[in-house]
Amino acid sequence: MARVFHATAGSGRSASRRAARTEPAPAAAPSTTSGSGGRGGIVAGYLAPHPPHLVYAENPPQNEPRSTGGWEVLRWGYEELRRRLRAHAPDVLVVHAPHWITMVGHHVNCVPNPRGVSVEPIFPHLFRYHYDFRTDVDLAEAIVEEGARAGLVTSAMREDGVRVDYATIGALHLANPDWDLPVVSLSANNNPYFYSDASLAEMETLGEATRKAIEKTGRRAVLLASNSLSHLHWDAEPDLPEDMGVERPFTHAQYAGDMELLRTIREGPTSRLKEAVPAHIEATSSETKAGSLTWLMAAMGWPAIAGDVLAYGTVIATGNAVVEWVPT
Ligand code: 2XP
Ligand code: FE2
Description:
The protein is an alpha/beta fold. It has a single domain, classed as Protocatechuate 4,5-dioxygenase, Chain B (3-Layer(aba) Sandwich), CATH 3.40.830.10. A six-stranded mixed beta sheet has the order 7-2-8-1-10-9, sandwiched between helices. The chain has a two-stranded parallel sheet with strand order 3-6. Strands 4-5 form a two-stranded antiparallel ribbon. Helix 4 crosses helix 7, helix 7 packs across helix 10 and helix 8 packs antiparallel against helix 9. The longest helix is centred in the first third of the chain and has 17 residues. It is globular and about 50 Å long. Fe (ii) ion binds next to strand 2. Pfam families: LigB. InterPro entries: Xdiol_dOase_suB. Keywords: Dioxygenase, Oxidoreductase.
């Protein structure tokens, strides 16, 4: 395992703030064993991309901007994801997202009831989302502990009022717009972006630590990897952002790179992604560089199964796929 940072995350002052437990969430706290009565563990994992356009297109009451629709095929894929997610009857959704960027270590949101407005900085005219959800604090803390035990720099984020990033909110909204399940949200350590030759090895360790924490707490968990695929996008948009007359891949090469990865996913087994994901990143500047997909695979233990691609489509030229894996 290649580690770049060895320091403890945060200052001494913030460490003492982090150590102080905040009040439990106002809503009923998640139970310590599977609430659904079924077996615990990771019951499904999804590639759940977060383009703000998809939330904008859905016109939920929480989002301020209004649209006339758009990107339907991807949104139909999410409809199917929601049906399947319900059938898995999870106790908790665990999400790893690339736009909660932490420079030192892997942070886990331990705020019991995050509330606020999440804004997409590039597309603030599309995404200004009012969120209010519950955290499964026991599981969040268990992930911090297991990550540290595995040698990672980890930190429990306990600062009430820190704005939750749009990649976390976007994936969670699209997967569960009712927000009736507790959440655990993990940050993306910035090393892979900062150091061009940094590997995704730490994400494997974080994934294994996530699985151990889920098993220890007896949760029945669904995991969400909030990543787009090919990631070049236009620097201009049409007057009507949802004008599907101009929506297309950035280049054929970007599209072909996505198709190659999706072919590997659909054929399985997932262990092939250990080589395919870095090759896809190299070919398409894929957002999986942030590690969410690798974290998901490692958490599930790289099962010898194929992924089920529920939808693929471009969003302002980036490639996006909604994919389900159900470990057996
Ligand atoms: O990566 C993102 O979230 C972006 N802001 C790019 C826009 C669309 C992504 O697919
Ligand atoms: Fe993104």
